[in-house]
Amino acid sequence: MNKLLKEHLVVAQNASGRNMNVPLYRFVGEKPGPKVYIQSSIHGAEVQGNVVIYQLIQWLKTLPICGEVLLVPNCNPVGTNIKAGEYTLGRFDPVNGTNWNRGYYYDDAFIHEFAQSIDDEESTESIKSRFRQKMKQQLQARLSETWGIGLAQHLNLKLQQLAFDADYVLDLHNGPVSTRHIYVPEYAKASASLFNIPHVIFMPNVFSGALDEATFCPWWLLTDLVSSKRQQPIDFAVEAFTLEMGSQEVISFQNGEYDAKSILTYLTAKGCLPESSTLPEQMSRKAVTLNNYKTLFTQQGGIVEYIAKPGDIVKKGGVLARVLNVDNLDTDRATTDILAPCDLVAILHFPSASVLSGTQLYKCFTEYFELQ
């Protein structure tokens, strides 16, 4: 039977000086195996991942685990509690405007320096262990900066300390009004079909501050450096993904169960769960490279009807949205159609009907292809 350990991690203090805690649910199996890290709600309004983690806990209480699974729901209690009326404004640190998902640590020079310390005889497991130890020392040094660091970065580094111990890292998110999609590092393409997610974005080895990149970019670069040095491939078997599971500000226990099973199919394939647990669905999966995941900005403000729904395929010239201009209700310029600039798949759109010019109205797949 799996052992369930529950503890709390202090990630911040409020203005009254009281600690703000994050719950940690750690399942430890009786057999050795990989380590898994799953967190949710780094952006305060993206709450569906908490339901997914709840459903995962119900399954992991009964399924025999090989290795360890660490679940961190509601990992940003500050963001969750930033409300304006009925809306959660939990995407940015309210003090300095930093995106809560852009303060993780990455240092290209540190990885190059570490790679030079590896001799030709050192085992893969020894390299992984030493790299994790050195990386966590780097993270602790950042947290202990004499001049301090911002709230968002402090939270990110505390979480990254937990995540960098894992072989498989899943960061659970939601879009504004969105269909399911997943960010996958290009070297892990084969894993894209292990999730029951129909839209896939392949990521290059470029760090932009997010948790998945803070996990896979160091290992990816280290893999390339060591493979080149030894003139033979090496595989550290570390993967990380951002899973976008529908829209923010809403939860669904039914959808949460579906997404939990999707994650279980991945964990089964990676040897964390028995092979009989669950298998991925046969489904159409459309994919793009990151440079073909495009944002459509509005050229005018107004009141918008979103005609293309998340997941819809729209041909070039098809109507994505219709804008109403209240200053021209008595003329033929009262409405304007926003047309698709090319064949695309609508993935998500802005949550409000009232938009300013320059708003990120839609995010879309272009030049997409079917995964085999």
Describe the structure.
- The chain is of the alpha+beta class.
- Helices cover 26% and strands 31% of the residues.
- It is built from seven helices and 21 strands.
- The protein has helices at 48-60, 77-80, 108-116, 124-143, 151-163, 211-230, 253-269, and strands at residues 3-13, 19-28, 31-40, 66-72, 83-84, 87-88, 168-175, 177-178, 181-185, 199-203, 239-247, 286-289, 293-297, 302-306, 313-314, 319-324, 335-339, 344-349, 354-355, 360-365, 369-370.
- Helix 1 (48-60) crosses helix 7, helix 3 (108-116) packs parallel to helix 6 (211-230) and helix 4 (124-143) runs antiparallel to helix 5.
- The model has no long low-confidence stretch (mean pLDDT 96).
The secondary structure category is alpha+beta
Number of helices: 7
- Please report the distance between the alpha carbons of the first and last residues: 37 Å
Tell me, what's the shape? globular
* Secondary-structure element pattern, one letter each: EEEHEHEEHHHEEEEHEHEEEEEEEEEE
Q: Averaging pLDDT over every residue, what do you get?
A: 96
Major sheet description:
10 strands, mixed
Radius of gyration: 22 Å
Beta-strand residue fraction:
25-35%
Q: Spans of 5+ residues with little confidence (pLDDT < 50)? A: none
Query: Helical residue percent?
Result: 25-40%
Number of strands: 21
* Strand line-up of the largest beta sheet: 1-2-4-3-7-11-9-10-12-21
